[in-house]
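Internal tracking record. Fields below are filled automatically when a chain is submitted to the structure queue. Please do not edit lines marked as system-generated. If the sequence contains nonstandard residues, flag them in the REMARKS field before resubmitting.
Queue: standard
Priority: normal
Entity type: single polypeptide chain
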Amino acid sequence: MQLTWATDTTDIEQFKLYYATSSDMTNKIWHQECDGATEQPAGTGIYTMKCTNIPIAVFPAYIQMAMKVKNQSDEITSNIQKISSYPIPPNIINITIQ
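SYSTEM-GENERATED OUTPUT FOLLOWS
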């Protein structure tokens, strides 16, 4: 699954993907099989991150991006995306950062 978003990434030290079976993400799990976020193409402000082997077994499922800001404990999160069925669509899922 490839995720893309456009946002100011100043002072961001880590990008994360969470998945859950509840739409409110109360049972979210941090999925750590993701590559680092990269700006593509360079200078556009559009970022992409590829995640593999997401062990979702129950559908619908939900995903959410999070960014960890340097020197802060809080995360900035994205809107929650619904994944309706398996196989998870291989297309790009656009994420809006809140």
